[in-house]
Design brief:
Chain lengths: ~90, ~90
């Protein structure tokens, strides 16, 4: 068994309201920032999967993304492999 | 002026408690997933910056990451350029 680490980026689908993104945009004038637009706020989940091969590990991540990390009706996601790091205590 | 799009990944620093990561791990047995560990949950913010050059745009993102998107005491962040997409209505 090998260890594979992945990052799952979950973002609101285009056309779906993004209240957190609007909140960020509303706060920009207070920081005197005027040249920023189209802010979208989502989540990033990193995880380590033990599996015989990378493809099998990625299948687990695909399932978790669709069933646990994201709401497929309103969110889309991408999965990328990332370097392993020291376990977090 | 050109448009540059960035993604900022904000994650809990190593050693900092991550209740959302623990919640995900607690729900894995219900999905009959046993081979997943070290789950960390953070945020991903995408935004478009208008600037004369990519370096100037990235400076704006660096400032927003440190002052608005993340709490530097307990979170770290990475910034990456991403492809422009159609503006979100």
């Amino acid at each position: 068994m090998s260890s594979y680490r992945f990052a799952v980026s979950v973002m609101p689908r285009e056309g779906i309201l993004d209240p957190q993104g609007r909140a960020v945009e509303s706060s920009l004038p207070h920081l005197e920032v005027e040249n920023v637009r189209d802010v979208r706020v989502g989540r990033r989940i990193e995880l380590t999967v033990e599996a015989e091969a990378e493809a099998a590990a990625r299948e687990v991540v695909e399932r978790l993304a669709a069933e646990l990390f994201a709401n497929p009706l309103i969110e889309s996601w991408t999965i990328e492999g990332v370097p392993m790091h020291a376990p977090v205590s």
